[in-house]
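Note to self: keep these together.
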Amino acid sequence: MKKIGYLYAIVSAILFGSAGLFVKLGQTQLDSVSLLTVQYVIAVTIMFIILFFKDKKALKVNKTQLKDLAILGVVGNSFMTVFYYLSFNYLPVAMTTVLLMTYPIMVFFYAVIKGKEKFKGSKILIVIMAFLGCIISLDLVNAETSYSLMGIGFGLLAAVFYAFMNIFSERNLSQVTPLAINGYSTLFSLISLIIYKFPHFLFRGEVDLKTYGYITILAVFCEIIPLTLLYAGIKYIGSVKVSIISNLEIPTSIVLSYFLLNESISIIQLIGTIIVIYSVYLIKIKE
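Structure:
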């Protein structure tokens, strides 16, 4: 079953790596919170339809689980995604992604402090190698442009709440199915966003069909599928390994930008991509 866990984590990372492209496209008409609200409306509707027809038993959760799902949704999912999307307003997609990829380091050291992981040099090296691979693949060392401090702050806050999501779901929601975790947590996230900013624009016809198309892609391929696979992967191999594998988001974003946006890839970026992939391979063989 651990092989399935690795597969889930890899596919999740690849799909998450495509999110930045569609966020940029979807933000042409909507701000970050409004875009996220529409995305969650679509995602929640689809997930609960699937649960109702495919697995009604998964819809039944006890009071403690419901409370934990509310915490995961409001504190984890909402804040992580809002800060992540806000950072796109100030930073390039690549820079935002690499800031988010600091979260495996946070997950790893939390696991060490709690005694779930041994403080081994090999694992520390793999975590550092994966992060350095991200930096090299983005060629940030040679970047001559300056970056917004506010954007960097938003990106790091997104990483903090992403780490929280991984840790909290592993610790408190092991008895809830991955799709139910995703469905309920996203529902609570949606409720919190509506309270914060009611989406009046939905009733005024201010958004065109093209934008709705991009947001639907985000909801299905960058929300429902990858986040469900993320929770499933955590159940099988744990939050530390899943977080390290998630570094594959960087090579994915680079490859997509090359093929879809005709952006060039340098030798340095290829080397960084290879380092990230090799780090994922190392965490697998260390099992």
